[in-house]
Amino acid sequence: MSAVSETMSTPAEAIVHDAVILDSDPATYSTDFADTWLAVAGGTVLARGRGAHWQSLAGPDTEVVDAAGAHLAPAFVDMHVHGAGGHNVEDGPDHLGEILAVHRAHGTRALTLSFVSDRIDPLAASLTAGARAARGRPDILGLHAEGPFLSPDFKGAHAPEVLTPPTAEAVDRILEAADGELLQVTLAPELPGALDAIGRFASAGVKVAVGHTAAGYDETARAFDAGASILTHVFNGMPGIHHRAPGPILAALDAPHVTLELINDGTHVQAPAARMITELAPGRVALITDAMAATGMGDGDYLLGSLPVRVRDSVARVRHADGSVGSIAGSTLTMDEALRRAVAEVGMSPIAAVQAASLVPLRALGLVDPEVHSLLRVGKPADCVLLDADMRLQRVWLGD
After folding, report:
1. Which listed residue (265, 290, 336, 383) is catalytic?
2. Cβ(187)–Cβ(197) under 8 Å?
3. Active site residue 139
4. Measured between alpha carbons, how far is 125 from 393 in angstroms, rounded to an integer?
5. Of 28, 178, 225, 373, which one has the fewest beta carbons inside 10 Å?
6. Distance of CA 346 to the CA centre of its chain
7. Which residue ranges make up each domain of the chain?
8. Residues marked as binding for substrate?
9. Tens-digit pLDDT profile for residues 45-93
10. Based on the number of CB atoms within 10 Å of its own CB, is 34 exposed (0-12), middle (13-18) or buried (19 or more)?
11. Which CATH class is domain 76-365?
12. Which CATH architecture describes the domain 12-73+376-397?
C-alpha cells in the first residue's frame, strides 16, 4: 500500500494510524503493513496509505487514534439475522431500532432481515412491512424468507404446520409482497415445483439458498445448476456428509459459485468441521449469526416466529409443552464473536475471517462487484472496526 502523495484540501475528521488494515486481496495482503493509516471526512474514506503522511491531513479538530499495531477492518455484514434485543423481525418496524442497535454495537453495519416460515398470507404481510421499513436504509440490506418451502424432516425451529411446496402462486405472492426488497429465499430443492421456483426467484433477482432440506447430492447439484447459489447455515438443517451419501454439503463444495453460510458459535458447528469447510471453500464461506430475540439479552424464554424458545447458557432451543427442549432455534451469536472464533478456534487468517464477515456476504447477495477486494476504498463509507491482536472488538465507527 503506497502512501498518498497529493495534498488534501479537506482536513480529516478522524485518522487511525499505525494499524494493520485488514482490507485487501488476501493474495497480496501482507502482515508487514503495521504502519498503515486511514483518514476519514464526511463519513467517507478521505485517504489511506502507509508511513507518516497522515500527519499532513490532520487539522486542529481532527481526532487522531494511535492503533498501536491493532487491526482496522471493514465493519461487518450479516446476511442472516432474525432478531436481537428481545425482538424478532416479525415483531414489526417499531422494534427494528432495538434489533439493529444490538448488532451495531458488535460491529455490524448492515444486515438482512430474516423471516421464519409462516403461512403465505401472514408471511406476505410481514414481508410487506419489512420492505417498507428497509427501503432506503443503508443498515438494512433487504429481506430473507427462510421458508416456508422447507422439508418437514429438517424443519429445525420452523412450525411444521406452515411448511408447503413452492407453487407458482406462492412464489409470486411472496415476490409481490416484498416489492423488490427480497434478497434471499431458502428452500428445499426436493419439494415439488422447487426447480421451477428457483428459476422464478432467480429471474426476479432473488438469491436462492438451499436449506432445511432432505436432498441428496444429486438433487442439490441440480438446484445449484438451476440457479441456487447459497447453502443456508452449513451442517444445520440438512443431511451430513457420508462417504456413500455425500449430501448437500459436498454438492455446495463442488459448485464454485455457491457461498456457504456458517454459524460459527461452537454449538451449531464445532471447530474441526468449520475448519474443514473454510479450507475446502476458501473465499466462499460467509460468517452469519442466525441471531434471534435473545441476542444481547440473556437466558430465558422467547419466541422465534410462533415457536416458544428457551435459552440456557446462551444456547436457544425450541421449548416443548412439557418443558423439555428440542432443536436449536437460531443463536445468540454476534458477528464480532463469530470473527474472533474464526481466527482463534477455526484457524482462519485475520484477513480471510474479516472478508468472511464483510465482503463475502455482499458478494453472495450480489451487492458488490465480484472483482472488488476492498470495502474501505477512498470515497466509500468509512464504516470500520478496530480489533486487538486477539481479534476482540475495541471500537466501532459507523455512519448514520
Report:
1. 290
2. yes
3. no
4. 37
5. 28
6. 18
7. 12-73+376-397, 76-365
8. 157, 236-237, 244, 268, 328-330
9. 999 999 999 999 999 999 999 999 999 999 999 999 999 999 999 999 9
10. middle
11. alpha beta
12. Roll (2.30)
